[in-house]
Amino acid sequence: xxxxxxxxxxxxxxxxxxxxxxxxxxxxxxxxxxxxxxxxxxxxxxxxxxxxxxxxxxxxxxxxxxxxxxxxxxxxxxxxxxxxxxxxxxxxxxxxxxxxxxxxxxxxxxxxxxxxxxxxxxxxxxxxxxxxxxxxxxxxxxxxxxxxxxxxxxxxxxxxxxxxxxxxxxxxxxxxxxxxxxxxxxxxxxxxxxxxxxxxxxxxxxxxxxxxxxxxxxxxxxxxxxxxxxxxxxxxxxxxxxxxxxxxxxxxxxxxxxxxxxxxxxxxxxxxxxxxxxxxxxxxxxxxxxxxxxxxxxxxxxxxxxxxxxxxxxxxxxxxxxxxxxxxxxxxxxxxxxxxxxxxxxxxx
Length: 349
Description:
By secondary structure, the protein is α/β, with parallel strands linked by helices. The chain has a single domain, classed as 3-Layer(aba) Sandwich (Rossmann fold), CATH 3.40.50.720. It is built from 13 helices and 15 strands. It has helices at 11-22, 38-46, 61-70, 86-91, 93-114, 163-183, 208-217, 237-249, 251-254, 271-282, 306-312, 320-333, 335-343; strands spanning 2-6, 26-31, 53-55, 76-79, 119-125, 137-139, 144-146, 187-192, 194-196, 222-225, 231-236, 257-261, 268-270, 288-291, 300-301. The strands form 4 sheets. It has a 7-stranded parallel sheet with strand order 3-2-1-4-5-8-12, with helices on both faces. Helix 1 (11-22) crosses helix 8 (237-249). The longest helix is centred in the N-terminal third of the chain and has 22 residues, at 93-114. It is globular, with a radius of gyration of 19 Å.
């Protein structure tokens, strides 16, 4: 298959590139290389693979239109580019809107005007459901849980955009859905929970599983916002990429659909529980600070993945211990690079 990955030099993107190449697919990348570590990812990729790349910002409607006019024949387009942090959206809501809402619209329009109809896979977020304050939450020693929803949140849950990030991603989410209904462009929306794994340059504002692991290994301060009992269903990146491929192969089933995607009830983790796992993994006590809850934070979010299991025959296969260990090994092997891109420490000559 011929696959375009927009945001292909980022965390999920670069893992998808390697996976698709390994399986014999032709892959091309569009990225603006704004994310810390993305240029490193791309350079490392090009050391071994001749993958076509164009540096384009999805906010540039004309360049996106020209790209799709000149590059055709894609079986699938993965739209993974975006502004990814709630905190950043609060401090700079205009940029957040322009990247996530307008940028997504530009890509959809570029594809529509090209006359092509690849399957467009959109990386959405659980934040489109808002804080869900109507749900009953049970509190335990190390975590919260839904009091009466053991299966998690399904796609039938009412949308309630909360925070500029939730608004911008939700706007993109709905535009992607509607371009299938109105223009017949095959699309699929994945409302993703917390994704983690190798090649993730996690920072405090986004990518908490990676950030806690990086900070622990580098002996940096960790701040827990809230009480640390908030839980998410977490998903190892390889499992997510496998789902992308399943969606492409089974496009007659996936097109026009929206799926909640994460580890589901079997793979949940609180901040406090991750800290304990990291203390066990690295053999030392972690000093942590605490601060107030951040805007839009959900005490609990767990994906109900029944629909994607049923329709696409997919489910996570990487358990928490295996996934965290794989990520930790990558971090340990790339300490100098992470020091530079995450903490701004210049590399040794």
